[in-house]
Fold these 2 entries.
Entry 1:
Amino acid sequence: MSKEKGKLNNISRRDLLKGGSTALAAFTGLQPAARLMELMVKDLAVKKTYAAQDDAPSLFYMPIFLFGAPARWCFDQMLATKESDLSKILTNQMVATSLSSSNGVNNAAVYRTFDYKGVQVPLLWNYEAQTSEGTKSLKSLLDHLIVFRGYGSGADGHTNNSSLQLSPVPSSGSVSGVIGDQAKSLFRVIQSIGFPYTGYNSPNGNGLTIVNYNPNENLVLSLLKSFRKNPDTRNLASLKDKYKTNYEDTRLVFKKLSKASLAPGDSLGIDYQKALQKIESSIEDLSSVWQQLFGKYQTLLLNAYKNRTQGITSLPVQVQSDPGTEVNPWAVQSFTETIFPQVGTDLRDTVNNVNVDHMAAEFALAEYIATRRISAAFEMVLTRGADNIAVSTQRTLEGGNLTGIQQRSFSTVFDQHSTGSISTVFYNTLFFQGLAACVLELVQVLKSQNLFSSSYIQFVSEFGRTPRNTQGGSDHGFDNMISSLITGVHNSKPIIVGNILRDGSGGIINGTYSGTFGYKSSTNVNGKNLMLGPASVTSTLANLMKLPSNPWKNVADPLVELNSGQLNIKASGEIV
Amino acid sequence: MINVSKFFLMRASLILSVFLFITLFQNCGQFTAINSSSEQLSPNHPPIEVKVSSVTRDRMLLGDGFFVMSVFRDVFLDETSNNDIINFVEYVLREEILSAQTEFGRACSVFNDGAAQNCNYNIFNQSIAMKSSSSSLREAARLQTCQRLVNNDYVLGGLINKVKGSSEVPNSTSIAKIVQLFFPALESKDEYVQPLLKLEASMAKGSEAVIDRWRIMVLSVCEEPGWQLL
């Protein structure tokens, strides 16, 4: 026994394989000819299985992670959703959807909505995008929108709350992980950058495929790199092809001897065949495909920035004064500092030369994956909005003192602690109208290919934001979380579920934060008053996607249910 | 004195009881782990029903990224390999296998010098699978690795020197050696050597260059997915 133990402690690869072969030898008792015949029959069966296999996943799921958690009141964190709710709103200028003006210049942030099919929605949804099908209003997305609000985790932290959103019960896996485990597509789950905080978790232990963004890189080509036909090995391929029959005969023998065929369904053999076929088949011209897709989304995004705040104002957004560091509504948080634009700056001019390539590349990749159905899920991760926003500043947060005029170039940062009220509504409106325009384009393409009815696009961030009373920024909103879904299984008008408190200051530090901003309240679900958590969202997703089993059902009931093609709203969505 | 003795006696009894209790459970654990059949257990032990989990049957045990890279190194490199060959092999492994590490499972070791790279610059990377599973992308990456390594005359030359013996062309002995580099456990030589010899004969008949005949010989074994199975 000690000998065995010692061997195990010093086991080598060869020992391990040798151990396996003993069992194999016992298993294979047939004579060579008979065994070869059996192999051939089995190989035919495998090929048939492969041929019969429907590789396209039954659904496409795309969570768009906005890591850093931007303020979403101007977009999908809808507060007053009924006309009668508007009078209930307790004002905090950080919680705004529009700008108001005096003397021809915008100088305050305000909460304004318009009616869409009986639901009050932020003004941003009026934006008209120049899509490939012509000018289209973002309003058409509202027919497919389901908003989850008024839920929380009770604890602060970017990474833990980010992971919680789509993996609220670690042992149950994450939404993408569960979907990927069932997929037979070329990829199970693809993620746009190696980002560990999406909570990706496969119950079967499957990995995901990561595509890192690099400027000017064809991400589709990067994704399919392993399936490329390598020009360096072209001669090798033709030589192999020349002796194809003999070459395949050797495989039949090895397949049996190496026990690859022992596993039911021979998944290894099928994956091998799929990889071989994919490499040998000529893949479409990825370079022109990429240029077309990337260019399309780049134009959409640049138009969104060029049109500035088309839906909310046409007046200058001019810095009126320098009220100091903590109470400055024009302040902007960058990755390294807080920037206080120089008095007289029109914020609209700061976005004249923005760079939107990162987002354009992500959406180009998304459309490729979604329309070719090569993966069941694509986790798009954005850690910033547009780059190269240029501004003159005369004060830095570190010193707080006035300095000489300096030029700054920054990106739209999502963790907007010290982005003031006017800057929040201005820059976030630009970002979200661009984002929504891209989603609208993608949805149109999916609709044209009859794929939208099984598509689910979710806007996710680790939490909502909690507005400071000073107009000088907003902090983490781990008890006023927000998530929303655009899906083809829903087609009528916006659905908003989750109760919120009218006065959000009740649960947190009084005097620092106040107003109506989406703070959680108990919600009536199936007749019971409950506090909602992230599992309420994942449980709803599982139901809407008709997954074979709902891993979150025991933790939380779905807030909206899909039964026989009919959506039933199971939860309230009130200001209380 | 009597009280003290009693005290020690009680302590000794207590320690002995705890020791016996722990030992008893350790033994049970050992029996359960090592003997898979209830017949081998002492009659005093309750019979144990041995069930083969469906998970065990349905899932193949695949080597992870480290295993796969280690096989490639074992096959294509040895102590005579020069730096150029080593660097080329490592370059291909990095480009093909490491870059698809999440497909191979558990390629992330914080104890490795390249921890940052292996773990995608995050040692808590949840995106890396804890188990290895088969996927088309994994197979594609492996096939590309085989093709690139075999296509390089210097890398292939090193391997040929390892197996050729006195014959300049592939024969049954050298073919068996190639197979055993990938499948160290295979014993029924004739069964797998015959089809490879047939392939070699048809290439010889086709007047293919000797190095190309070796190339295809190695490639046909390398591309076979089964050597990844544990």
Entry 2:
Amino acid sequence: MSDAMLEIRNLHVRVEDKPILRGVDLVIRAGEVHAVMGPNGSGKSTLANVLAGREGYEVTQGSVLFRGKDLLSLAPEARARAGVFLAFQYPVEIPGVGNSYFMKAALNTVREARGLPTLDAIDFLKLVKQKAKELEMDETFLSRSVNEGFSGGEKKRNEILQMSLLEPALAVLDETDSGLDIDALRIVADGVNRLRSPERAVLAITHYQRLLDYLVPDRTHVLIGGRIAKSGDRGLAIELEKRGYAWIEAEAP
Amino acid sequence: MRGVAAELAFERSYEAARRGRSERAPVWLERVREEAWQAFAERGLPTRRDEDWRFTSLAPLEGLDFAAPQPGEVPAEQLAAARERVGSALLLVISNGQFRREQSQIGGLSVESLDGAMSTGRLGLGSVLDPKRSPLSALNTALQSGGVFLEIAATQVESAAIHVLHWLDGGAPQAVNPRVHVVVRAGASATLVEHFVGASGSRGFSNSGTELVVERDAHLRYVQVQEFPESAFHVSSLATHQATGSRVELASIALGGRLARVEIRSTLSGERAELEVNGLYLGRGVQHQDHHTTIDHAAPRTTSRELFKGMLDGRAHGVFHGRVHVRPDAQKIDAAQTNRTLLLSDGAVLDSKPQLEIFADDVKCSHGASIGQLDPDQIFYLRARGLDLERARALLSFAFASELLAKLPLETLRESLERTLLAWLPLGAAS
């Protein structure tokens, strides 16, 4: 399957000796948007973190291929450079590191890895200001420390700002919609939609289907007990909103 | 004294100096010197059995048979480098403990030899920096000569920073006892940088004494930058006296030295006096960086803010001992103390000891201390954006330490210290 952007096969993951993912299979092709929904504790965030390479997640079985290559053997920075982006559920505050400085360093590192020329301070500033404007972010965010003192919604927008700068091939959104009011949700979803292209893919992890009103997915999956219990089209998300997860748990083998 | 080589060397120096000056010196001055020497000789160099020296051992210097201070100029190249670092037009050079007027640039400053000011009775000895408080300040009081007295008149130009450069030679290890006495007159404002540098590989011992008297409504910014080679020994005894309505901002940037200790004793003796004490200590290899501070709230409505941060790598040892003393009649005190240290390696050690002694009841006093490693969540966040582990560690370490540099008053100094900090960071050490 040469056109697969992400190919997860029988993925088992433990966290502190507790099995969380118990055989996840998921294939995302270039150009597609997939949604993963599921109740609390079903393993949604574990899936996001293991794709980004966070420590403390032990893969005991299975494989993950990104553009046909083994993703799990790469360091987190190598994954980022290869084009995987995680929008964090809880972006960390980093006092003393300027947001603009950080984003320029990240962008130039990623551009270098992709064989593109690095941007100087002036070109970077022009680019980041334009992106910030698209996300209706005040320019003062750029001169503050990374996420320091940002509200929940501001942190999420800052994640999407970084995503739109880094232009990843695969964007993994870990509950990016949580804590956003309806206006912010639309702005963030527009930001993701601008990134959509036949060469890119999105994996959106969410609790609520309201994000999916804006970010219409090609496929929706339900993660329960560490496995994909059901997959369907956009209609599945709407059904989940109405009926909850219990009926799927009852159906599951 | 226990009779270790260093103590015997100090005794020889003291005897020689006493013989050399006995005819001319005023009687009171001789008496203060003699008492200071006795105070030192009674106990000798402190050991770890002494409560104030529990975490700092002077053993590495005890065995050195120090030579008496030799006259010497600061080499031109080092002088130029030091001046470039601080970027200040006014310069006082103190080489091996001796004020060198011909190498200084004193402009319109009122600068006098300390010996002269004392022998004419214009200035006392030991009234600000009390020789009884610490054996090393007693040693300095007994042995100091060739120091400098600086007076900042109310008409002093605000923007002119004064660079006091201390130089320590290499070769046979010398013990030097520089002394600087500064008075900031009522309503005046001054910026002073006391800067310690030495010849590469120097195993000398600089035991300096600094007295800062800040009169009514005066304002002093003081920065000590200690960048001796990592083979030298440094003890700095610093005392401040503040009158009503005065403001003092002290900063200690401790980068160098094999073993370094800065003792700060600040007395807020006038109402509404304000004090800020900041410190940054960096240690690597087997460096020992000790800060021992005492803030004495002797008058009502005085405030103090203290922030010390350190980064320790290799097998370095850091010490922070912060005493805050509030006297019984000193009400409405506001004091806060914070000490944060990053340990960059498994072999690095920090001893942190806050000590609050509060004898008044209407007082706001807080302290906090933390010792730790870099935050793994912050490291992961940076790596998830493409920065490698070394870069992430360096960036976070820099952010941690640069908070203190950002508080420094002189832009040139601030920027050059930021470059030093960047160069210091263990970029390759991905442990």
